[in-house]
Amino acid sequence: MVSDPGSGTETYSLVRRQRELASLYATAKSLTALGELDAVLQSIVHHAHDLINTDFTYLSLVGGDGRLSARASQGTISASFLAACIPADVGLGGKVLASRSPHWVRDYAATTLIHHDPDFDRLVDAEGLVALLGVPLVIRGEAVGALFAAERSERSFQADEIALLSAFADHAAVALDNARLYEASRTALRELQIAYRKIEEHVAVMEQAQAIHEALTGAVLGGGTTGDVAQLLADQLGGGVSLLDRAGVTLIRRDSTSSPCRTPSPVDLADAVEKANRSGRCTHLADTAGVAHSVASIQAGDSHLGALAWSRTEVADDGGPDDMDLHTLERATHILGLLILKERAVTEASERLSGELLTELMVGSPGISPAQRARTQARGIDVDRLGLLLVADSPTVSSIDLSRHLHDIARDHSGLAGEHLGRATLILPSADDDRTVEEVHQQLRRTLAGPVVVIGERVVHHDWARAFSLASRCGAVVRGIGHTDLGATTRRYALYAMAFDTERVQELNRFVFDTIGPLVEYDEQRGTDLVDTLSAYYAHHANVAATARALYVHVNTLLKRLDRASSVLDLDWRHEYNLELQLGLRLHQLRAIAAAPMQP
């Protein structure tokens, strides 16, 4: 029996076909076990290379920019070829993608059936690529890439090879889609985990900020002061916390027990305080010593109450204060604002009561009624010891503001302060009147940063009204003789006592009448001003020209007035330098100043 030669070929083809199908099934099964996109792509080209057995195999995907680029390869391929990125509508790949069907060329460089890209053709020539088969990777009806098998010599690709690679590409597309979905799921999971961690961190920040806020609120409700709040903040935040007044002056400073920080100077914080007040938001700066400062404004409605400054040593890699710290700082300003308003209300009520008591003593003096004694005792004040009365006056500060500063001194010395008849007034105990007046003057001067006149008078037999009158009139005389910044008792100006002591008014009137009485009467009867003319002449050291300039009159006019004054007083102004006359003129001026109505 003669065997059929063709039967062996058919048997070989059948066996080969079975082996390829088995390999295809095993490859497809292995692909489904992969999850990472890059691993799936590399596995696809590896198995495709084994199945088709060409010189090299590579896989290209369409990117977000619409261009085709290689993502995985097997075989010897140059780096420049793999880095190539060409439009998705040129070359064999463009034809495969457009038709979503396999295509091959026997000689890539020579074929005219495709649209060539010059840049890619140069790479093809350098790589030695000749024959090329491409099959599409289709996912849900969309061609997302292509799988290529390439030879470096001319050849034709048979139908069974094309079918095998196409079938493999179909399985590969499913694996690729799964890998993309897997990667998208992992990305979404990572993003979800990040978002969840951020939510947890935010919740933790809010819970910690709420706990600090509750601690601050509890401290205030428990009777705590602004100093207690500042200490609690310093312990929670670390570093140091400063409470500043409206002018930027540090009122309270508290440091953390675990991480104290140097006290910043007003210059260090000036810019930050100004920006915080202007913007209403927390501002930050770092000084030259490496200390970081965060400043928040303390406000109540449109009223600026001060500022809160948090200082800490800056770390080189510190990204600045976190949101929780800033949230805590800003919440603390709200609590401090309420506390400051409360303390201010208590202070104002205390000052009002102190002023009312002072006025009662002034109006009811001399003497103390049982009701007055009871009210002062209720405030912890021994009315019998209020033996020194002071009147303060400043050219730059109103009597109301001066009274507020005197209230602070009164609280420290168990005294009373207030505004009486337009004058800032203080009564307090004193063992050494001259020293007490000087101390009050120095304290006011430091506070005001400007000149102030403080005159004190000893209270005799509870007669505060008389002491007030003497101190006020003496203060007017002191300013009249040119003093603008001093602290003294009326005893220091006993020389001028006749001008401010109402009980000596008769002595003063008699002295003035005996010295310049005729001249005063002459002015009153004729409406002239010879008294002022003669006073100016002596004030300018008997210099006629200087006196004329001061009075804005011609020298001849001045001479006529001086001659007339000499005639009335029966003296020669050219030759006589009468000291008693000059004293009478001066006392006459001071009497007018001391007797003038008090202006607030």
TrEMBL record:
* Pfam short name (any one): HTH_30
User: What is the source species?
Assistant: Streptomyces ortus
- Matching InterPro entries: CdaR-like_regulators (IPR051448), GAF (IPR003018), GAF-like_dom_sf (IPR029016), PucR_C-HTH_dom (IPR025736), PucR_C-HTH_sf (IPR042070)
**Gene3D superfamilies, sorted:** 3.30.450.40, PucR C-terminal helix-turn-helix domain
Q: What is this protein called?
A: GAF domain-containing protein
Database matches in SMART domains:
GAF
User: What residue stretches are annotated with the GAF domain?
Assistant: 36-186
Q: Which SUPFAM superfamilies does the record cross-reference, listed alphabetically? A: GAF domain-like
Source organism superkingdom: Bacteria
